[in-house]
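=== RUN LOG ===
request id: a7f3
mode: sequence -> structure
chains: 1
length: 191
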Amino acid sequence: MIQESIMLVTVVLMAVVTGVFVFIAVNAGKESVDYGPVQAKAFGIRTALFWVVIVAGVLITVITTLDLPYAATRGDVAEGAVKVQVEGRQWLWNLSQDSVAADETVLFEVTAGDVNHGLGVYGPNMRLLGQTQAMPGYVNSLQLTLREPGTYKLLCLEYCGTAHHAMISNFEVTTHPEHAAAANTQGRDGA
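=== RESULT ===
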């Protein structure tokens, strides 16, 4: 009984839709209407909407990219930053120094001696804090302020060969500024 009712409703609705299509097809050529003013208004609305979308897109792009962490690429290197030269080689990181004091800003100057590598700096909780490419013939900068004392890990983020998974170095952040001061002297001088 329910299926027969559903079938009847479906046939009636199909007949109504078919009737509407037939009515429109029969009457389409009978009346001549000037659609020029309507079309002009629609084009005006479309043009205005186009410019609203373009302006909104530019504003959204500018606003959302102002706070990206690319200070080192803009030349905004913190005064007194500890410079640490990092060279990636299969399958290790060579560091000019391996410790700093907590709350120091570190400028990692990263290159590679053989193939491309991806330097990832992980905090003591293994959260990725920053990353950059290590490429032969280029020096990329990564500036980070390391606030939490502990052992930080430098891992390779780009597959560089069979021992890629073992390309890990430790970087210590100490609570004692005097402990890291001796190591920092060389790093600040850029030697």
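=== NOTES ===
The first strand starts at residue 82 and ends at 89.
Confidence is low (pLDDT under 50) at residues 187-191.
=== END ===
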